[in-house]
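Moderator note: this is an archived Q&A kept for reference. The question asked for a predicted structure of one protein chain; the sequence and the answer are reproduced below.
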Amino acid sequence: MIESLLRRCVRDYQNTQDPAVRQRYGTLSGGVGILLNLLLFAGKFLAGLLTASIAVTADAFNNLSDAGSSIVTLVGFRLAGQKADEEHPFGHGRMEYLSGLLVSLVILLVGFELAKSSVEKILRPEDVVFSWLSVGILAAAILVKLWLFWFNRCLSRRIGSAAMAATATDSLSDAVATAVVLACTFLDHYLHVNIDGVAGLVVAVFILRAGWGAAKDTLDPLLGRSPDPALVSAIQRDILAHPEIIGIHDLILHDYGPGRAIMSLHAEVPADCDIMAAHDTIDEVEQEIKNRYHILTVIHMDPVATDQETVQLRDRVAALVREIDPELSIHDFRITAGPRRTNLIFDVVAPYRCPLTDGQLREAIGRKVKELSPTYYAVVEVDHAYTAREES
């Protein structure tokens, strides 16, 4: 069904990396959400009037806020689809994240207001009137919300949208909340147990939990999260498939919105290689990554010594460093020999969870290097990993 809908409503729907196509996805998601949530609001508000139920009425206004959230999503995708300009040379893709964050804040606000109203109803309970019409409306609302959850989840997975994922989560929490309200309606009618206020509070908890999860999903890319380890591994494999490149490090990925990413990294090449040939390889790799992953890439070329003595000593130092922490790695290793001491100069990459400070790490490495020879001195620059796990 969704495939057919996309084929009819989204031109070139399979090209999900195109910002214009993403905008059409957002328009479809927002339009469907606005229409269905307005219908649900009208139906639930009528049911709330018929039953005098705070839980049903609050659920109705929750759907009204969802319609507003769909408008925000729609506008967010429109703004994100704008082309780059002089003031925003990397485009406006982060507007999609901001719209998702705004939707999350609306969800949290609705949950808070509903919790407040529910506590008041618990303290001052009122009789709830049973109506089969309201039961039918609530049952239909559950089915509609489950479909909206499935619809937005499918769209979010197709284009990798945090904003749509937030909308899908909101729809699922609404379905659960409405199911709780419906169950409490039957309990009140058949068992004469008035837990309307408690039901409203349970609904509020579901809504607040969903809002918090959605907010976290949209805040992470705005704050600058670590890139997907699977993506990093795939990029590393593709780059190292070129025999001219013998190692990479300092890979940094900047996210300017879905389909808009910039990456920089250092590529190691033998110091005695043909510099022009190596430069051509670097250019080729940059273009490959742009075509394959839609990531604008800048690669710094690092010449490294590949003679047997340097390679063997590098491997021994790398093994000693891993004794301190198995996740430590080194790069840019070189040797400068003097009459009384030999400097081993290199960078060490430490994960942020490493318990040692940069100074403690340098001292520990210095002691390890002295184990190889008392004339060795470690000159260490401590880097921190910008990815979940970097290859040495």
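Archived answer notes: The two ends are 47 Å apart (CA to CA).
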